Amino acid sequence: MTVNFTGLNELKIGLKKRTDLTAVGQIVKRNGAQMQDSAQRNAPVRTGFLRRNIHLNYSDGGMTAKVTSDAYYAGYVEFGTRFMAARAHVGPAYKVQKPIFISDLEKIMK
Predict the structure, then answer these.
(1) Side-chain half-sphere of 22: how many Cα atoms within 13 Å?
(2) Residue 61: which of 22, 35, 32 has the closest Cα?
(3) What stretches of 56-89 show up as alpha helix (H) in DSSP?
């Protein structure tokens, strides 16, 4: 019994094309920057400290983007306290950016 495989070269070329993660890194970078910008624009401003301390950090070789705040009171503003209502700015930015990010990734998968 003999088994022949055809199309292995095309398969190899197709797989090699799909393993190039440069486009994914660019999408992560662009979407991370857009989310940071949106979070900063949505942040309530009294002194500007909260807005200035919303940062974007990359890890995993540029495959992970994190939008964080160094302001010690950022969590209180985002989620509220028993004394004040929440004034969310990071959560809404995430909710807007998530479908855009997924759409961008789906485009390069085709």
Answers:
(1) 3
(2) 22
(3) 74-79
What is the average per-residue pLDDT within 22-29?
92
d(CA 20, CA 38): 29
Rounded Cα distance, 81 and 85, in Å: 6
Total domains, the chain: 1
Query: Is 6 inside any structural domain?
Result: no
Question: What DSSP element (H or E) covers 55?
Answer: strand 54-59
In terms of residue numbers, what domain contains 97? 21-109
Q: pTM for this one?
A: 0.80
| 12 inside domain | no
Give the containing element (helix H, strand E) for 65.
Answer: strand 64-69
Closest CA to 25 of 62, 68, 78, 72: 62
